[in-house]
Specification:
Layout (H helix, E strand, L loop, with lengths): L10 H11 L2 E6 L9 E6 L4 E6 L3 H13 L12 E5 L4 E5 L4 E2 L7 H19 L6 H16 L1 H8 L5 H17 L5 E4 L8 E4 L15 H4 L17 E4 L6 E4 L5 H4 L7 H11 L5 H25 L2 H15 L8
Antiparallel strand pairs: 1-2, 2-3, 3-5, 4-5, 6-8, 7-10, 8-9
Length: 334
């Protein structure tokens, strides 16, 4: 849901979607609260829900389309949206809806939270598909890592006052070390934005925590009741689905662990352990070295992007990560 300004569905997108699924009986803006996000939750005349997403750029459109066509089917039925149709001219995708509420918006009991992360790990392992990685994918994964290290200087230049000299030196050391690990990191088709807001939970949860007057997020993203309890017919044991593949690409598998390590895993070793139990293998030695380095590079990116775009949560993540690294907390990332 967009905040402060509702984005109407453009007539050209509505006409395109109706050619595919028939007349739409309901349309609701489901965009994130940023100018570049353009997503609509729509319902057809049969009561079936879909999402229309207009990508912010051609590269996002190409990545997401390729992801849905090549890797996402491996997740299995109900574990991710299904791509129904695309329109390259409008950079638009028509997707099926999957039930659930973003884990980031729920207060989950311990066992349910661990189950969510265990399933998240299992789903990412399927997505990564490292056993069948094509040669071109392996080369692209290596190049992606090198680009990320190269981009560090650009991010440092943009971060200005938010980066002390000691923090700049820390990021530069991290970039240098990542380059040495390039050939040792397992390549994968990654999600690219693996975090709790892109993981939808259907199952046991305590009432959602939100500010007064804020609409329940379930109204746009899930089939759950506003209380956060599973609606009738949903599995009481809980099931996770993954959404938003616009950043999916070939890159080292460890890249998909960075935002979790910089977020919910900080003070919850049980969540990290549950994730890797689901993933089916622990981090390799190279990945253990790379993860805090990639976290440092992510922090620099956050501080270059967040302030300029008013994304305070992104800025906060960058500052929090650098503070942990400065305090010799590298081991807490693994």
């Amino acid at each position: 849901m967009s905040h402060g300004h509702v984005k109407p569905l453009p007539p050209s997108l509505r006409e395109w979607a109706e050619r595919v699924v028939g007349p739409l009986s309901a349309v609701q803006d489901a965009s994130h609260p940023r100018a570049s996000s353009r997503v609509w939750d729509v319902t057809d005349s049969r009561g079936l829900r879909f999402f229309i997403k207009q990508s912010a750029s051609a590269s996002f459109y190409e990545r997401e389309t390729f992801g849905y066509q090549s890797a996402v089917p491996a997740l299995g039925f109900g574990r991710a949206p299904r791509l129904v149709e695309t329109d390259a001219r409008q950079l638009a995708l028509l997707l099926t809806a999957v039930p659930g509420t973003p884990v980031s918006r729920l207060t989950l009991p311990g066992p349910a939270h661990r189950s969510a992360h265990r399933q998240f790990g299992a789903l990412l392992r399927r997505l990564h598909g490292t056993d069948k990685m094509p040669g071109a994918g392996r080369r692209e994964a290596r190049a992606a890592l090198e680009r990320q290290a190269d981009d560090a200087e650009t991010h440092l230049a943009r971060a200005t006052d938010l980066m002390s000299e000691s923090r700049r030196a820390l990021v530069r050391r991290a970039a240098g070390h990542v380059r040495k690990l390039t050939d040792l990191l397992a390549p994968a088709h990654i999600h690219g934005d693996a975090q709790e807001r892109n993981a939808l939970w259907t199952g046991q949860a305590l009432p959602e925590q939100r500010t007064p007057g804020q609409r329940p997020l379930e109204q746009r993203t899930s089939g759950q009741q506003a209380s956060g309890r599973p609606a009738s017919g949903q599995l009481p044991s809980g099931q996770l689905a993954v959404i938003d593949f616009e950043r999916s690409r070939y890159a080292p598998a460890v890249q998909d662990f960075v935002r979790l390590a910089c977020g919910p895993w900080q003070d919850r070793g049980d969540l990290r352990a549950a994730f890797f139990h689901g993933y089916g293998r622990p981090l390799t030695d190279a990945e253990r070295q790379a993860l805090p380095c990639l976290a440092a590079l992510d922090a620099a990116s956050c501080l270059a992007y967040g302030p300029d775009h008013g994304e305070h949560d992104v800025t906060a993540r960058g500052l929090r990560t650098l503070a942990r690294l400065e305090n010799s907390a590298w081991g807490t990332f693994v």
